[in-house]
Predict the structure.
Amino acid sequence: MYRQPMPLSPRHLADLPIDQWPHAITIEPLTAPPSLRPSTIRPPGSKSLTNRALLLAALAHGDSTLTGALLDADDAQVMLRALRALGAQIDITPELDAHTGAPTANATIRITGVHGRWRTAGPAPITLALNNAGTATRFLTAAAILQPPTSPGIIIDGNARMRQRPIAELVSALNALTDRAPRVTHLGAEGYPPVLVPPMAIESISARAQPFGRTSSGQFISALLLIAPFLPQGLELAFTDAPTSPSYIQMTAALLARLGVPIDGHIRAASTLRIAPHTLRGFTLDIEPDASGATYFHAAEALLNHAWGQSPTTTESAWDKSPTCPESLQGDAAFADIARAWRADPLDLDMADMPDAAMTAAVLAAFSDGTSTLRGLRTLRVKETDRLGALVNELAKLNIVAQPFTHTNAQGQPDEGLTITPPLLPTGRRGINCTPAASPVEFDTYDDHRMAMSLALIGLLRPNITIRDPACVRKTYPTYWRDLARVQ
């Protein structure tokens, strides 16, 4: 078995550059009630909102300013590099923590847009290497059709895992927008990146996209919504069934509406969404803290309250429902209510509106006294890793039985779920053995940031937990270990 000599703890990592992080870290459990020192954790800016806003600002007319935008994370960095390659001018001012003066993962980003058409030229297509950034890959595949007619084309590519993540439906939808050649084509395996997006006849693009059904991805539909204002006739998206992850589609639609883009229809109530053509002017937007990142600390508070009746930290909410601040655009913001209500009773949850929070919920389920059921998890198979399979593997190391199952969701569509049954303890209750004699466990993270961040929470109460490849959190939350150390 692999074992890193003397793994560091999250507390030690806080002062080290990411490129000096070890191959594994140990999580230091609390062995006594935490001291109630005042400490508020604010996660970095939302990746989902940052990448949506960056793309819109890069295509807008004039100058835009994003505050609280995610910067020091892989997914944001690949988007910024791509937008610069496409002609947007970007100026970045990193932000510092107002209380500690330490760098955050955020920045104020100023973008001069390209007025709706990318500035690409040259003898050969431009290649955008997007690693395993799903939002950037899907959004930029659609946005690449906004090239000038003389452009050499744009290649959308990623790492080995991205080349296993399907994109065929989005390619088909883009090709169906016009009956003229050329077409978006696959350069490797059919249905997967890399793809070549040629300059398409924008003036001939239909105002109506093909119908979307039960297999439609929220990222694919969001990608089309984001380019719709820049198309001569706008775009109408028709739905035959409720698509996957509707909360992410509604996030996109709500952001467009907040920026003044006319939009007709609501993803949960209408069979169509209609976005009119619109001259999007430069805008100013404050990016919400990442609701997905906040789920780990809402869960940490719940676990510590369960163990000790108190928690040393509070998590800054990703939204404020005051009259002057709209509600959060992020579906994962609802996880805070789940964590507050948890009292070690088994969970029975539909996670379809917040699939990125499913693994955080799985950790609470691991400490619950009975079998928990999580539904609406089909999309977890095609994330940064097969998260359903990864959860089964890793929870088994704690003698937790996690079993995937198929089911029919409320819309009558096939979906997947997971039951999670912790082992019996000597007390007669179910849960995780948190005694000092608990055997060492090393969790694999599969190059998946959410696997690392969620499984680390187990180590807050259970001794001898090691997390391999801690640097994978840089994808969305590079300051995660520093923040987790504040909980310990």
Q: What stands out?
A: The chain is about 25% helix and 20% strand. The chain has two domains: 10-43+290-487, 47-286.
